[in-house]
Design a protein that fits this description.
Layout: H1 3-19, H2 25-39, H3 45-57, H4 62-100, H5 102-106, H6 109-139, H7 143-157, H8 162-178, H9 181-187
Helix pairs in contact: 1-2, 1-4, 2-4, 2-6, 3-4
Length: about 190
């Protein structure tokens, strides 16, 4: 596929995903996965999971971070710039319009009810991300990752913040990566 065509697909896919994604950055991740992993097959499931982990751990909005990483992975620096532009353009336009009519939106009962209804859909989409990531870990048959997933889930339910969990998991992942391969191979059997 020609570079121009790839960049066009990246831009318009990012633009469409961003324009129709409500509920925060975590909602765009499963949509990016469906587009770039399932539809175009430009990324593997593991690559998308790794990019998601990096996007979440880096400072800034997860949707923008993910766009940068996915775009860079697919088409280098230009791909990163194109996907970021496609990702930030819709919210920038929408928020600019909303800010002009803020008073009318703030007190509108219909808008309030629509937002409450969309919250249920957002929870379902985020839950989908969790299930897909857990399934990928399960398929790898690595006990350490399944235990870590369960421990982090419980810790987050007990109020432990995301930053300590991400840092702890990053350290455990680094230690696991540095272990000799023979030891890691035994665990997966």
């Amino acid at each position: 596929m020609r570079d121009g065509k790839i960049l066009g697909i990246l831009f318009f896919s990012s633009l469409k995903l961003s324009a129709f994604t409500f509920g925060g950055g975590y909602v765009i991740i499963p949509l990016m996965r469906k587009t770039f992993v399932e539809k175009y097959r430009w990324l593997s499931e593991n690559e998308m999971m790794d990019l998601t982990a990096i996007a979440q751990s880096a400072p800034g909005a997860i949707a923008v971070n993910a766009a940068i990483l996915v775009g860079y992975r697919i088409a280098g620096v230009v791909g990163a710039l194109i996907t970021v532009l496609g990702t930030v353009l819709p919210p920038m336009v929408i928020l600019s319009v909303i800010s002009l009519f803020y008073e009318a939106f703030r007190s509108n009962l219909a808008v309030s009810m629509v937002m409450q209804g969309m919250a249920a859909g957002v929870v379902a989409v985020i839950f989908d991300v969790v299930l897909v990531m857990a399934q990928t870990l399960w398929q790898q048959r690595r006990a350490i990752w399944m235990v870590l997933l369960a421990v982090c889930f419980v810790a987050s339910m007990l109020g432990v913040g995301a930053a300590p969990l991400v840092l702890a998991c990053g350290c455990i992942g680094m230690v696991d990566t540095l272990r000799p391969r023979k030891e890691r191979g035994k665990e997966g059997k």
